[in-house]
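C-alpha cells incoming
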C-alpha cells in the first residue's frame, strides 16, 4: 500500500508539470502578442485617419476665406444708365467691366503702358464686374455716386495673400510677377486688401475661375437627388422587407430573391450607373445630368441595404408580440402594421439613413449618367441639369490651378460634415427609439 502522505511517493499532477507550465507560458505570450498586434492596428488606423483629416483640413480651411481689395468705384451714369431710365434691365446692360478698369486705373495712376494696364486689370477678379452689376440692380440709387466697394482679387493674388506663393522665388518661377507684387504691397500699405469670409463658396455655382467657384449648385443637386432617393427607396425597401419576412412563403423562388438581394448589396456601384445609362437615359429618354435620374440610380443601389436592414429590424421583434396580437383576434395584416412595424421602425430608419449616407458619397454611378457636366447655374428642380457634391470634388481635383486644390479639400470637408451628421442622426435615432427585449 502506497502511503499518500509521503511526498516522495505521491504521483505528480499533470497541471503542475514543467511541460504544462511551458505550454501555459507560451499561451500567455501568444495572447500578449495578439493583443499588442490588435492595439498597434487600432493606433495605426487612427493615426492614418488623423493624418488624412489633418491633410484635408490643412489644405481646405483657407478656402472659406477669400482675398478682397477695396476699390473706389465711380458709378458713372454715362457708362451705366446714359438715358437715366432707372430700369434695372437697362442698367444691367451697362459697361461694368469698363467701370472696373476705370477704377483700377484711378487706384494705380502710375501704370501707363498698355501691357502694364492689361496686367493691372488681371489683378482683380473677372467677377468684380458682376458684383458691381448686382449691387447697382439691387440699389439703382448708386448710379452717379462714388463708393468704396470690396471686390475679389484674382486667384493668384489670393494664393499670394494666403502664403501659397513664395515671393522670394525668382520671377520666372512664380505665377505672380514683380509688378503685381508691387501693387499688392501698395494695397497692403493702405490696408486696402484683406481676407474675408468666402460667401461665394456657399452661394454660387461652379466656375472656371477659382475665386468665383462655389458649391451651391452641387449642394442643391445633391439635395434633390437624395429627396428622390428617399421618396422611392424607403417605401419600396420597407414594403419588400415586410413581404419577404412576414408574408412570403418559404420556397425556392423566395430563396432566390433573398440571394439576389444579398448579392446586389455587394455589386460595384458603377454597375448601377451602367444600368441607369441603359434604362433611364437610353430607353426612357429621361434628361441627362438631372437629379431625377441620379436619384433613380441611387435608389437601385441603396435598396438592398435598406431591405437587409429592415428585415433585420423585423427579425429583432420578439415572436411573443405577434402571438399576443393574434391571440386577441388581430388579423395578420393588423399584427404586422399595428404592432410589429412600429417596433421595427427605428431600426428601419437607421438602416435607411445609413443607406442614404452611402448614396451621398457615391460618384461612380453619377459619372455614367452625365452628372459630370460643367453646370454653372444652380438647379431649380429635380429635372434641371445639375451635378452632385462628390462629382464636384472629382471635377475640381482635376483642375490645375492651385486655388482649386483648397476648394477641393473644402468641398470634401463639407461632404464629410454631411456624412458625419447623417450617421450621428442614425445613432441618436437608434438610441432614442431602440427597444431592449
Amino acid at each position: 500500500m502506497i502511503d499518500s502522505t509521503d511526498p516522495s511517493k505521491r504521483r505528480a499532477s499533470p497541471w503542475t508539470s514543467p511541460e504544462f507550465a511551458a505550454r501555459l507560458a507560451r499561451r500567455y505570450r501568444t495572447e500578449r502578442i495578439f493583443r499588442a498586434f490588435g492595439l498597434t492596428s487600432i493606433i495605426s488606423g487612427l493615426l492614418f485617419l488623423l493624418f488624412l483629416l489633418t491633410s484635408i483640413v490643412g489644405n481646405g480651411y483657407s478656402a472659406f476665406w477669400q482675398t478682397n481689395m477695396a476699390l473706389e468705384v465711380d458709378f458713372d451714369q454715362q457708362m451705366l444708365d446714359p438715358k437715366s431710365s432707372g430700369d434695372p434691365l437697362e442698367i444691367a446692360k451697362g459697361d461694368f467691366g469698363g467701370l472696373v478698369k476705370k477704377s483700377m486705373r484711378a487706384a494705380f495712376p502710375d501704370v501707363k503702358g498698355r501691357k502694364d494696364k492689361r496686367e493691372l486689370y488681371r489683378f482683380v477678379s473677372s467677377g468684380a464686374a458682376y458684383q458691381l452689376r448686382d449691387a447697382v440692380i439691387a440699389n439703382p440709387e448708386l448710379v452717379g455716386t462714388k463708393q468704396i466697394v470690396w471686390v475679389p482679387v484674382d486667384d493668384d493674388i489670393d494664393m499670394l495673400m494666403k502664403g501659397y506663393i513664395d515671393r522670394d522665388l525668382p520671377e520666372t518661377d512664380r505665377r505672380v510677377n514683380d509688378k503685381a507684387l508691387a501693387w499688392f504691397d501698395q494695397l497692403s500699405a493702405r490696408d486696402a486688401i484683406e481676407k474675408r469670409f468666402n460667401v461665394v463658396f456657399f452661394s454660387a455655382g461652379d466656375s472656371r475661375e477659382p475665386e468665383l467657384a462655389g458649391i451651391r449648385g452641387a449642394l442643391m443637386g445633391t439635395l434633390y437627388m437624395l429627396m428622390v432617393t428617399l421618396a422611392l427607396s424607403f417605401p419600396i425597401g420597407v414594403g419588400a422587407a415586410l413581404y419577404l419576412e412576414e408574408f412570403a412563403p418559404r420556397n425556392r423562388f423566395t430563396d432566390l430573391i433573398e440571394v439576389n438581394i444579398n448579392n446586389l448589396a455587394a455589386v460595384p456601384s458603377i454597375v448601377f450607373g451602367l444600368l441607369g445609362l441603359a434604362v433611364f437615359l437610353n430607353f426612357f429618354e429621361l434628361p441627362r445630368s438631372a437629379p431625377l435620374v441620379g436619384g433613380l440610380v441611387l435608389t437601385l443601389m441603396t435598396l438592398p441595404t435598406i431591405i437587409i436592414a429592415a428585415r433585420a429590424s423585423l427579425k429583432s421583434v420578439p415572436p411573443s408580440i405577434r402571438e399576443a396580437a393574434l391571440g386577441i383576434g388581430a388579423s395578420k395584416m393588423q399584427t404586422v402594421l399595428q404592432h410589429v412595424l412600429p417596433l421595427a421602425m427605428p431600426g428601419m430608419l437607421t438602416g435607411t439613413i445609413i443607406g442614404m449616407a452611402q448614396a451621398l458619397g457615391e460618384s461612380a454611378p453619377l459619372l455614367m449618367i452625365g452628372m459630370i457636366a460643367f453646370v454653372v447655374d444652380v438647379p431649380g428642380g429635380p429635372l434641371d441639369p445639375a451635378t452632385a457634391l462628390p462629382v464636384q470634388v472629382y471635377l475640381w481635383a482635376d483642375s490645375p490651378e492651385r486655388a482649386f486644390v483648397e476648394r477641393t479639400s473644402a468641398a470634401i470637408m463639407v461632404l464629410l460634415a454631411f456624412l458625419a451628421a447623417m450617421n450621428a442622426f442614425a445613432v441618436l435615432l437608434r438610441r432614442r427609439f431602440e427597444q431592449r427585449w
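note: The mean pLDDT is 87.
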